[in-house]
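Practice problem: predict the structure.
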Amino acid sequence: MPCAIPLDPATAATVVLSDLLQFAEGGIVSRTLLNTPAVRVVLFAFAVGQELTEHTNSRRALVQILSGHCDFLFGGRWQRLEAGTLLQLPPHHPHALRAVDGPCALLLTLCTETDAPSTIPATTATAAESNA
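Answer:
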């Protein structure tokens, strides 16, 4: 049974991202999949030639390139990001995007920062990872 979009934050559910992607000739299509006070997840589809000019965001951003590739400005220079790449941007980090050679799809996750330090060290495997 297909899940309603946007996702209900109180209900466990799955979505097939490729089924939700919609490209518009000469445009950018964005679709918010989940929106809570702590996390916002948005699916983007960029037609060739589309771009987002340089901007910042007050939240931490994780950008996962799903298909195609794009030129992404971060760290003061343009870099080519291919499908399968994950980019992490701290809050207030200037960035921009261009879909130059073809369409590009990405998943953007915006996370609200907390003052609490992580209680799980980055090098510690979870029980699920240990049993894999």
